[in-house]
Amino acid sequence: MADHALGHLRDISRANNSGAPQAGKTLGRVVAPGDETGHSTLAGTLTVAGTPARRRVRLYHRASGRLVREVFSDAKTGAYVFRNISAGPWQVIGLDDFGLYDPEARDWLDAT
User: For residues 42 and 90, is the Cβ–Cβ distance under 8 A?
Assistant: First the structure.
């Protein structure tokens, strides 16, 4: 059976806004306004088959399950970043809009 995982959400960093890696263009929109705003950052890297790729990355509020933000990872570096969020906990899911791979998730993440 073939492995259909999107890849990896790796190198999740918990840096403040000044030290966070820069991602490519993002949607950066708040989908469900509420208690998710703050001064923390959650950043990481998305890869597909070991190669950095541009894919949709969604941030979910762990306690409520609400979709909070959605960004695209950078095509060259795979970097993504969610800024101005509360400390968490969060769930991050990388999606393949081409339908070739299953989603990849990281759970119980705290931003700083």
Answer: yes
